[in-house]
Every structure is written in C-alpha cells, then in structure tokens.
Amino acid sequence: xxxxxxxxxxxxxxxxxxxxxxxxxxxxxxxxxxxxxxxxxxxxxxxxxxxxxxxxxxxxxxxxxxxxxxxxxxxxxxxxxxxxxxxxxxxxxxxxxxxxxxxxxxxxxxxxxxxxxxxxxxxxxxxxxxxxxxxxxxxxxxxxxxxxxxxxxxxxxxxxxxxxxxxxxx
Length: 170
Known about the structure:
The protein is an alpha+beta fold. It has 4 helices and 9 strands, in the order E-H-E-H-E-E-E-H-E-E-E-E-H. Keywords: Lyase, Metal-binding. GO terms for molecular function: lyase activity; metal ion binding; methylmalonyl-CoA epimerase activity. This is Lactoylglutathione lyase family protein.
C-alpha cells in the first residue's frame, strides 16, 4: 500500500462581490495595479452554455444576470469581481469573530503610499500602521477598507518572512 504525501496547494483566485463593477475595476486596477484580464461583462442565466449552467449550479435559480470581471495580481493570483443587480449594495458589518472569510492581504513595501492612494479613491485606513517586530524586523502592516467596505490587510514583506523565526533578526 502506498502512502500519498500531502503537499501545499497553491492559491488560484478570490471572488469579491462589489456594488459597481466598473468602479471596482477602476479602483483595483488603478490603486492596486492589478492587471485587467477580462473587462466587465454580463452573464445571463441560461442552460445552453457551460458558463451559464455552471453559474446556475453555483448560484441556484434565484438570479437572472450579473456582471463579472477578471483581474490578476503581479504574482498571478486571480481576482474575480462580481456585481449582482439585486444584491445588497453595502458590505456586511465587519465582524471577524464570526465564521467566514475575514480578510485578504496584499503586499507592498511602500505601505504609506498605498494607504494614501486607497484613501484618495474613497477607501479608509482602519488602524495606524504597526510594526510586527520593531526591534528586530522592518515589517509593517495595516488594515484598510476599499471604497465598497471590503476590509483587507497590507504587509510590507512576504508572509513567510514576516512569520519565520530568524528572518532579519539581529
């Protein structure tokens, strides 16, 4: 009997529902610098195409159409933006204590400039910029919010460097 070794799966993409697809594409491409892979387009509920049937499988029957756009980060992670005409147009109350997706994180060594740009596009800085290991490592972080109320985090360094012992320590 052979043993199958487990291995780390790679992250492919994240889907984000936004109130206005065009505004979201503008924000994420201009502020975050993400590449636009597919401009906003409409998807209609129908069973004649693979995408139509797949969306019925995912969303059920209680919809008629929505808009979708595809973007990508510099390291190839996909970002699917969805906009549904009948959905609630505001983000749910921020509550990290409940089960569910809490946030995503982006990395930018110039955290101050990115936060300024987020604010200039209608987003918010949710906390002061903090140093993880101020005596040992030059790593900073901050939680922010996009103009649509979606909370995310910014790191100045990679996840692995931030949490690995000995990285940049004295």
